[in-house]
Write a structure and sequence with these properties.
It contains one helix and 22 strands. By secondary structure, the chain is mainly β.
Length: about 350
């Protein structure tokens, strides 16, 4: 089986198509408070050890949103409709204003088939929970839909299906107040005979990061592809600084400026993903060696990043069976201290 798609997230696959029943999920509660996602400017330095950060306000005395040298504080379960009792809630994405969320989940609603599907919701206050989510029926492929990633304008979405070998799909819409048009498979060379377990799209839609097992079937590495305008993406190239031989590396999640990155990797324990962090001074540089975030990772469970605020201060991530939390896959968030 592929070593990274979370279909029950066995090692060879990475897509989160697992159901709560398959995971032994129990009751799910909504008992945490999310941190308002900060849509501020990116960090002045992308190195975790530096700590210095530009608030983006133009005021040299303005406090930094967080200290990148400090660890994340204790994770909390995202409240409201993002997590639901008895479901496997596997994907999460916010638009830059943090008022619109996209979630992948196997929760059952009228008209939905079993498996992972994409839901969306809105709120009017950034620190309020999302009270309801609606099934994105226009995105249903018949093969499952999970791990959504959107451009900053909210008009283009990328996601992964739930049938191995997994592939990347995309859809567009005229505005954020209408449904997406029917989705289509992303053309070669992004998709092929290999599996793509997840994809991250840049704010402007010009850069796509993905986890693919094209080099070694069942073993995922992180790749990067670019394009000019709205044309086809070029051939993906491995991001060597983030990949480790004989380990699965996936779930790439970057800040908007692409200078800080979080990944999921089973380099420490085969088949069990942990969250790692790396950075680089500019987008032309290689990333630093990824460092495990011990304060976020659980023992003998599956932890993987999903979405991060532009400044790198607040991370939303998925965890399976987190001690003290819910059974099965659900979304948590944590913020670095100042």
């Amino acid at each position: 089986m592929p070593r990274v798609a979370i279909i029950v997230r066995v090692r060879p696959s990475i897509l989160l198509v697992a159901t709560c029943a398959a995971l032994g999920a129990g009751a799910c509660s909504d008992d945490a408070a999310p941190v308002p996602a900060d849509a501020g400017s990116p960090a002045d330095t992308s190195v975790r050890d530096s700590g210095a950060q530009d608030s983006g306000s133009g005021d040299a005395t303005a406090p930094a949103p967080c200290d990148l040298a400090r660890p994340f504080e204790s994770p909390t379960l995202v409240p409201g409709a993002v997590n639901q009792a008895g479901s496997a809630d596997t994907g999460f994405w916010l638009l830059p204003d943090t008022l619109s969320a996209f979630v992948s989940s196997d929760r059952m609603v009228d008209g939905s088939a079993p498996g992972q599907h994409i839901f969306s919701g809105t709120r009017v206050v950034v620190d309020a929970p999302f009270e309801t989510l609606t099934l994105a029926t226009s995105l249903i492929t018949g093969a499952g839909e999970q791990l959504p990633s959107l451009t900053a304008d909210g008009k283009t979405i990328y996601f992964i299906d739930g049938t191995y070998p997994y592939h990347v799909w995309t859809a567009t819409r005229a505005s954020t107040v209408v449904d997406f048009d029917p989705p289509a498979l992303v053309s070669a060379p992004i998709n092929g005979t290999w599996a793509v377990s997840e994809a991250w799209i840049s704010s402007d839609g010009s850069t796509l990061y993905l986890a693919s097992d094209q080099a070694t079937p069942g073993l995922y590495d992180i790749y990067r592809a670019t394009r000019a305008g709205t044309g086809a993406f070029g051939t993906p190239t491995p991001v060597s600084s983030l990949n480790t031989a004989a380990a699965a590396d996936a779930f790439v999640t970057l800040t908007a400026d692409e200078r800080q990155v979080f990944i999921g990797s089973d380099r420490a324990t085969e088949g069990l993903y942990d969250i790692y962090y790396a950075s680089r001074p500019t987008v032309s540089d290689e990333f630093s060696a990824p460092v495990a975030l011990a304060e976020l990772n659980t023992v003998d469970q599956f932890d993987y990043p999903l979405w991060v605020t532009p400044d790198g201060c607040t991370l939303y991530f998925g965890t399976s069976d987190r001690p003290g939390g819910l059974d099965g896959y659900h979304t948590y968030r944590a913020t670095r201290g100042r």
